[in-house]
Amino acid sequence: MGLVVSLDEGKKKGSAKIEPLVELVSADMNRVNELILSKAGSDVAMIPEVANHLISSGGKRLRPMLTLSAARLCGYRGDGHVKLAASVEFMHTATLLHDDVVDESELRRGKLAARMLWGNQASVLVGDFLLGQAFRMMVEVGSLDALDVLSTAAAVIAEGEVMQLSAAKHMSTTEDEYLAVIRAKTAALFSAAAEVGPIIAGLGRAERAAFRSYGTNLGLAFQLIDDALDYGGSSAELGKKVGDDFREGKITLPVVLAYRRGSESERAFWQRALERGEIGEGDLEKAIGLLRSHHAIEDTVERARHFGSVSRDALAPLPESPHKDALLEVVDFCIERAY
Amino acid sequence: MGLVVSLDEGKKKGSAKIEPLVELVSADMNRVNELILSKAGSDVAMIPEVANHLISSGGKRLRPMLTLSAARLCGYRGDGHVKLAASVEFMHTATLLHDDVVDESELRRGKLAARMLWGNQASVLVGDFLLGQAFRMMVEVGSLDALDVLSTAAAVIAEGEVMQLSAAKHMSTTEDEYLAVIRAKTAALFSAAAEVGPIIAGLGRAERAAFRSYGTNLGLAFQLIDDALDYGGSSAELGKKVGDDFREGKITLPVVLAYRRGSESERAFWQRALERGEIGEGDLEKAIGLLRSHHAIEDTVERARHFGSVSRDALAPLPESPHKDALLEVVDFCIERAY
C-alpha cells in the first residue's frame, strides 16, 4: 500500500541516503554503542533484559548520530560527545518505554513491546532508570549548558505527551495545536541532540541557534512523515501495524486535514471512529480512502517538506564539510521514507 | 489496631517532634512551596491538575526539609538550597506517581491516587515532566557535585523499584536482599537530599559523608517503620489502607521475619497469600496474628531503631546548633510513629 505523491522534479525516488552520516560517525557510534550496553547494565537482571530488548531491536539511532556529527562539524576533538549521544539515545529509549505503556502498544519496531513481555511496571521503571543514567552521563561531561538544554528537553517532551493525551480524543484539534504537540514530543529531542554539538565544541549563539533550528525542523518533518506512513506503509517497513494511530484514536495531521476538508457525514465518521473509538470492519480502509480523496497524506508530506527546507536552510551558513553534506542529506532521507 | 512494642526506658510515647525542624526551615520552606507551585505549572492544564492533586495533599515534605536544614547547618547563605529542595520533592513526587501505577494503588495519602482520577497515562507522563523540571532546577543551581549526587539517586531509586518488582513474589527473599531494595528505593533519596546541603555550602568529604550516612540510615528507619505501620496503623493516620502491602503481595521485613521464623504450615500460608496472591476473608487478620506471634513487627521496629542510632551518630561530630538538634529529633520522630 504505497503513497501516491508527486516527486520534486528531477529528484529520483529514494535518492537521499542516511549511509554517508552513518559512515562519518561510525567510529564514534561504536563507542556510543559500547557505552549504551555498559550503562544499561545492572545487577538487577530485569533492567538489562528490558533495556537490551529495546536497544538491540535496531532503531537507526538517528538522534545520537545528530549529536556526534554536530560536535564533529563544529570541530570538537574531545570525548564528551560520546556520552551526550548515549544520553540522548537513553532519553529516547525511556520515552519509548513510557509511550508504549501510555499508548497500550503491542508492537515496537516490529517486535513485541517490552510491556507485553515484562509488564507495564517494568517498562515504567526501566524507563526511569535509563533517564537517571542519561543524566548521570551528562553530569560526567560537565557542561551546564548541555545539561540545561537536555533537561529542558526532558520536561518539554513529557509536557508534549500530556498535551497529546489531552488532545487525543478531540477531532476539533487544529493543525497548529497538533504542531505544538509534535514540536514538544518529537522535535524537542532532535533539537537538543543537535544543539549539544556546538555547545560542547564551545561555539556561540549563532551556531547553537542554527543547530537548534536544524534539529527542531528535522524532528517536525520526521514526525509528520511517521504520521503519513501510519496510513500508508507496510508493517514490515514500519515496525508497527498500519493503522495503529487510527485504532488508538490518535489525531494526527492527516486526520486533522481530512476532517476539516470533509463533509458532515465524513466528520461524523471520524468522530465515531476516533472520538468514541467505535471502529468496525472496513473502517480503516474507509479512513484511508477519505485521507486520499482529500489529499491529506500528500499534504502532510508537503508540510514535512516545508519543515525539511527550513531545517536545511538553518545549516546553510555553516562552512562546507562532509558532515554538513551528510546532515543535509538526512533531511531528505527522512522525507523520502514516505515514497 | 495499635502496635504492642516495648518502649525504651524513660522515653515517653511520642515525645520526639518534627515541629522544631518545621519551624527552623519555615521561611525557606515557604519559598520551596512557591517554587513547587510555579514549576508544576504548564499551559497543558492536566499537568498542574495532576501535580497539585498530589502536591497539595500534604505530605510532610520531610525530604526537602532535610536539604534546607542541612544547608543551613553547614552555614550556607545563598539561594540554591531552595531550588535543590524543590528538586528533591519533585523527584519524590515523580516516584510516587510512577509507584502508584506500578503498584496499582487506589489511595495515596488518604486521597484517591492520581491514576484513579486521571488514568495511568497521566501519572506516568506528569511524573516524567516533574522529573524533567527537577533536573532543570538543579542545573540552574549549577553545582555539578549536587547534580551528580541527585542524578545518581534518580537511577538508583528506579533500580531499587525494579529490584522490588523482581523480588516481589519471592518469599525466599532474605533480610539482606530486602534491605538492598529499600536502601535503593527509599534511602537513596533521603541520602541525596541531606548530602546536597554540605555540597552547596562548599564543605568537604567529612561533612558530605556525615550527611550521606545520616540520610541513608534515616531513610532505612523511615521505610522499616512504614512497613511496620502497614500491618498496624489506622487508615486515617497512614493515608493508606492497613494491609495494602499484604494485598499487593509485597514482601516487607515483617513478613520476611515471620516467614523465616514460622512453621511449615505457616510458610505455606505466606506462599499462598503473597506468592500466589490467593487471599481470602480473614487472611489479613491471620497474617497480623502470625506477625505478632513471631514478634516480627516489634523486631522490625527494633531494626529501625538500630538504623536510627547509626543516623544520629553520623551527625554527632558536627558542632551543636538548633538545626543539628532538630535533625536528630526527626530521627526519633520517624521511629516513634510506630507507637
Multimerization status? homodimer
CATH topology description of chain A: Farnesyl Diphosphate Synthase
CATH superfamily of chain A: Farnesyl Diphosphate Synthase
Strand order of the largest sheet of chain A: 1-2
The helical percent of chain A reads: over 70%
Q: Which chain pair shows the most residues in contact?
A: A-B, 42 and 42 residues
Strand and helix order of chain A: HHHHHEEHHHHHHHHHHH
Radius of gyration of chain A: 20 Å
Strand content of chain A: under 5%
Mean pLDDT of chain A: 89
Main sheet summary of chain A: 2 strands, antiparallel
* Secondary structure tally, helices of chain A: 16
The gross shape of chain A turns out to be globular
Return the domain count of chain A. 1
Termini separation of chain A comes to: 11 Å
CATH class placement of chain A? Mainly Alpha
Model description:
2 copies of one chain form a homodimer. With 339 residues, chain A is mostly helical. Chain A has a single domain (19-336), classed as Farnesyl Diphosphate Synthase (Orthogonal Bundle), CATH 1.10.600. Helix content of chain A is 72%, strand content 1%. Chain A is built from 16 helices and 2 strands. Chain A has a two-stranded antiparallel sheet. In chain A, helix 4 (62-73) packs antiparallel against helix 5, helix 7 (144-167) packs antiparallel against helix 8 and helix 9 runs antiparallel to helix 15 (296-315). The radius of gyration of chain A is 20 Å and the shape is globular. Chain A starts with 18 loop residues before the first helix and ends with a helix. The relative contact order of chain A is 0.13. At the A-B interface, helix 5, helix 6 and helix 7 of A face helix 5, helix 6 and helix 7 of B. Chains A, B: Keywords: Magnesium, Metal-binding, Transferase. Chains A, B: It catalyses: 5 isopentenyl diphosphate + (2E,6E)-farnesyl diphosphate = all-trans-octaprenyl diphosphate + 5 diphosphate.
